[in-house]
Specification:
Largest sheet: 7 strands, antiparallel
Shape: globular
Structural class: alpha+beta
Distance between the termini: 45 Å
Low-confidence stretches: 240-248
Helix content: 10-25%
Number of strands: 10
Strand content: 15-25%
Number of helices: 5
Order of helices and strands: EHEEEEEEHHHEEHE
Length: about 250
């Protein structure tokens, strides 16, 4: 007999990929890599990644960041387009050179608004800028803009982003990770955090806003660790049984 037993109190590997959830710090190891680059990073996809999708009849470009910490490597996607982002009421999302954003039909004239570099923003640009702000650890009021942002969002040129990844290879960004359908890792893209100071309350605040729901499963404490799925109890439909019924 050959049985390599372990104490029942000891946690052992039982096969399958370990999934994680919660808040953690990540480095960016690649942006929109091809299959060869992915294999060089130990990410063994079988086919060349597709970076465009059809979303309700409109093409979107996937700006794809590969993020890594000591436990896992995951991807985060920003769906972008070189079309302006416009609300159902006709307002445009405006941005400026320091990453401020606001909705307005015409150029904003708010007292708090900085007009330098103001323009209508492209679809997905606001998410990208939020991520870059935290990843690059841009101070309040610091510049955060790209000269080729139209090309980046349209998917025709990622040179500025690639150069930034090289310059920031030691930087980390704090992300909330969850699990979709019990088998896919997903990154929350409504807010991102800095390593210092760690303001995890920003994540809690955003998660509790009207449109801040994270459509994935995650530990509600936001603690980082292996994902443990919760199981909803199942109540069987049982017909009422009378004492006079024949049980045999």
């Amino acid at each position: 007999m050959a049985i390599e037993s372990n104490a029942s109190t000891e946690e052992v590997m039982t096969g399958g990929m370990t999934l994680y959830s919660g808040l953690s710090n990540f480095t960016v190891i690649a942006i929109n890599p091809n299959l060869e680059k992915l294999h060089g990073l130990g990410i063994m996809l079988k086919t060349e990644p597709e970076y465009t999708i059809d979303l309700n009849g409109e093409e979107r470009f996937k700006i794809t960041f590969w993020l890594k910490n000591e436990d896992t490597t995951i991807r985060m996607e920003v769906l972008a387009s070189d079309n302006y982002r416009q609300s159902k009421t006709g307002k445009y999302l405006w941005m400026n050179s320091i990453g401020q954003e606001t909705w307005s039909e015409e150029a904003p004239t708010y007292e708090w608004w900085k007009s330098e570099g103001q323009r209508k923003s492209y679809i997905g640009e606001d998410t990208l800028i939020k991520f870059v702000k935290s990843w690059a650890n841009v101070a309040s009021g610091g510049k955060v803009s790209f000269e080729t942002i139209e090309n980046i969002c349209g998917g025709s040129a990622l040179g500025e982003l690639q150069d930034l990844a090289t310059a920031l290879k030691q930087n980390e960004v704090r992300c909330l990770v969850g699990v979709n359908n019990g088998k896919y890792q997903k990154v929350y893209t409504r807010v991102f955090g800095r390593v210092k100071p760690q303001r995890d309350d920003f994540f809690v605040k955003e998660l509790n806003t009207e449109y801040g729901e994270f459509k994935a499963d995650y530990d509600m404490t936001l603690a980082w660790g292996p994902f443990i799925p919760t199981i909803e109890p199942i109540t069987a439909d049982v017909e009422a049984v009378s004492e006079s019924d024949d049980w045999v």
